[in-house]
Amino acid sequence: MFGIPSNMPSSVFDELWRLQQEVDELFGSWSSPLGIRSLPRGSFPAVNVGQTPERVDVYLFAPGIDPKSLEISMQQNLLTVSGKREVRAEEDTDYYRQERFSGEFRRVITLPEDVDPERVQAKYADGIVQIGIQRRESARPRQIEIH
Amino acid sequence: MATNTEVTRRDASAAAQASGGTSAQRAQSAEAPIRPPVDIWEDKDGITLCADMPGVSKDRLNLRIDGNNLIVEGQVQLELAENAEALYADVRSGLYRRSFSLSGELETGKIEASLKDGVLTVRIPKRAELRPRKIEVQAS
Predict the structure, then answer these.
(1) pLDDT in tens, B62-95
(2) Cα(A28)–Cα(A30) distance, rounded to whole angstroms?
């Protein structure tokens, strides 16, 4: 995910780098069946979803939007995000390229079934909407002690 | 939640120390960069370029002129938990990179850029003496 120079040995950084490599591998080796609600690659906004035993984090790559225009809703484990991005079209100018998305968008993301729709937080920074959803404690893996 | 600020900060400073070419080579060997989508338009005073680079903050943006080329580079920073694993990923690279060749009538020394909510806007003015002039046709 993040390109790290490998020619600067440092035990702490090497460890972080190794962890990052593992995340890279996980992101890169995504090959499960296609989600029924998934959109083709290149759709706006791009989505990444990460999980830990405690929470699920959804990242929407949505630059240049007004976060107030976003509608985020959860129904059980189904997350729906919709909104609008108006790319200002200049008048009396010649466009050479218009590759950026403009218009309305909607994405529906199926999350793991143990997420708690009551405990959701969302924030917007540097063009990324991050939605964090806590998982139910009962579903977390537990260490079972042997007496 | 832990951020990977340390990791990327180190990367950014290394990129700053190294020459431009080194960081580009490293990016190529490490991961395939994303080509950010752009809008480019021209008016009588110059050319404006807008690029979508979500996840890039100002200190992780690298905008430079190399010879006749304008090079746009940026590192994505996501707030990831340490033990996070990916469930789904549209975005599989942490680097944006795209370059454009400029032409001589553009004033590369007066380029202005701003970054807001992951959108980079670059304004490249034309040299004043080379701005198009309307040529009046004299009635004979």
Answers:
(1) 999 998 899 999 999 988 888 889 888 888 889 9
(2) 6
User: Is B87's CB within 8 Å of A112's CB?
Assistant: yes
Contact A126, B118 (CB under 8 A): yes
State the nearest Cα–Cα gap between B136 and chain A, in angstroms.
21
**Each residue's pLDDT tens digit, A88-112:** 777 777 889 999 999 999 999 999 9
Residue A83 CB neighbours (<10 A)? 21
Give yes or no for a cis peptide into A45 (omega within 30° of 0).
yes
**CA atoms of A57 and A65, how far apart (whole Å):** 20
The ipTM assigned to this model is 0.72
CB contact under 8 A, A126 and B95: no
Coil/strand/helix, residue A24? helix
Residues making up chain B, counted from first to last: 140
Chain B environment of A93 (Cβ under 8 Å): 41-43
Cβ neighbours for A105, distance < 8 A, ≥ 6 positions apart: A43, A44, A45, A62, A82, A83, A84, A85
Of A2, A41, A100, the CB nearest to B37: A100
Distance, in Å, from the CA atom of B72 to the CA atom of B88, rounded to the nearest integer, reads 27
Give the distance from CA A139 to its chain's centroid. 22
How many beta-carbon pairs below 8 A join chains A and B?
Answer: 176
How far is A140 from A32, CA to CA, in rounded Å? 23
DSSP B1: -
- What is d(CA A34, CA B88) in angstroms, rounded to the nearest whole number? 10
